[in-house]
Specification:
By secondary structure, the chain is α+β, with helices and mostly antiparallel strands. The chain has one domain (10-124): Ribosomal protein L22/L17 (Ribosomal Protein L22, Chain A, Alpha-Beta Complex), CATH 3.90.470. 37% of the residues lie in helices and 34% in strands. It is built from four helices and three strands; from the N terminus they run αβαααββ. The chain has helices at residues 2-10, 25-35, 40-48, 55-71; strands spanning 13-21, 80-97, 110-124. Strands 1-3-2 form a three-stranded antiparallel β-sheet, covered by helices on one side. α3 runs antiparallel to α4. The longest helix has 17 residues, at 55-71. The mean pLDDT is 86. Part of the 50S ribosomal subunit. Pfam families: Ribosomal_L22 (PF00237). This is 50S ribosomal protein L22.
Length: 125
């Protein structure tokens, strides 16, 4: 077990995150699944051509992680690989009141705006 911990500590990783993104986590996860495991440069090119609205915040976090790797850690962009992309659910904000009946269990007719947190971890190969 100690060998695995030492290997994890020796790996060079860079993290970037975005909080309170105004997209539903379910929709952002579809975009994140499309680029998981790619190199960041090819993932950014793929995200530029995706029609989903959630592609833009994922692309911006990925570009932020690449900037962190280049400026803070001194990694070369050619030697980076996407280690993990996590999309976590954020707070749910009541958007507006809806007047038709939905029953007592479904928020009494309020529409909910879902927010997300995106975390990207890059590793050097």
């Amino acid at each position: 077990m100690t060998n695995q911990k030492s290997k994890i500590k020796n790996q060079k990783t860079v993290v970037a995150r975005a909080s309170f993104v105004r997209n539903a986590p379910r929709k952002l996860r579809l975009v994140a699944d499309a680029v998981r495991g790619l190199s960041p440069l090819s993932a950014i090119e793929a995200l530029k051509h995706l029609p989903q609205r959630g592609a833009r915040p994922v692309r911006l976090v990925l570009e932020q992680a690449m900037g962190n790797a280049k400026n803070n850690a001194g990694f070369s962009p050619d030697r980076l690989l996407i280690d993990t992309i996590q999309v976590m659910g954020g707070p749910r904000v009541a958007k507006k009141s809806d007047v038709h009946a939905r029953g007592a269990r479904f928020g009494r007719g309020t529409r909910v705006k879902r927010l997300s947190h995106v975390l990207v971890r890059l590793k050097e190969v």
